[in-house]
Amino acid sequence: MRKRTTLAHLGLLALVLTTGACMEDQSGGSYASDSHWSSRRLVLPAGTTLAVRLASRLHSQIAQPGDSWTGMLVAPVRVEDRTVLPAGTYVHGNVVESRKPIAGAMIDLEISSVSLDGRDVRLDASADQVLAAKSSNDVVAVPAVVDPSAPPLVLQPGTVMTFTIEESVVVRNER
């Protein structure tokens, strides 16, 4: 009887081990493969800049903190000669602050995530506040003196803005 129990346990152990070796991780690779355990993390370090072309129209008279906006990366983001985020990567963000012209038109935006390989990767990136210029329709992306006579600020789709990543983030594991 004891011999039969030991054989049953060995059989069960063999089944578990072979099944586990055939299981796939989230990326489609096998847990038993060498590449699963030797993956390399791709990290976007703090201070990395992202050039984003807005797909959304944002108006200082209408925009409210928390409103969402979308865009796309204009250029690939490379770290250590590797493309971490390709050009065309979708970007999702929020309005942090917005002021109407009477208080000096301004819009402050942040990036909350990027879409990569079918999943959203959370990250924290910000741009300089965008202020309306008094003399023309130009947009100045640097802090300036509040001018209540400035026109409303409108960021049209196609406007390119530069964002800076605040904290390092692991974007993906590369095998």
Short description:
This protein has helices at 2-22, 34-37, and strands spanning 40-44, 49-54, 58-59, 68-73, 77-79, 82-85, 90-99, 106-116, 119-126, 130-132, 139-140, 154-155, 160-165, 169-174.
Can you give keywords for this protein?
mainly beta; Lipocalin; 2 domains; single chain; 2 helices; 175 residues; 6-stranded antiparallel beta barrel
Provide the fold topology:
Layout lengths: L1 H21 L11 H4 L2 E5 L4 E6 L3 E2 L8 E6 L3 E3 L2 E4 L4 E10 L6 E11 L2 E8 L3 E3 L6 E2 L13 E2 L4 E6 L3 E6 L1
Antiparallel strand pairs: 1-14, 2-4, 2-13, 3-12, 4-7, 5-6, 7-8, 8-9, 8-10, 9-13, 10-11
Question: Can you tell me about this structure?
Answer:
By secondary structure, the protein is mainly beta. It folds into 2 domains: about 1-35; about 40-175, Lipocalin (Beta Barrel), CATH 2.40.128.260. It is built from 2 helices and 14 strands. A hairpin with a 6-residue loop joins strand 7 and strand 8. Residues about 35-40 and about 135-145 have low confidence and may be disordered.
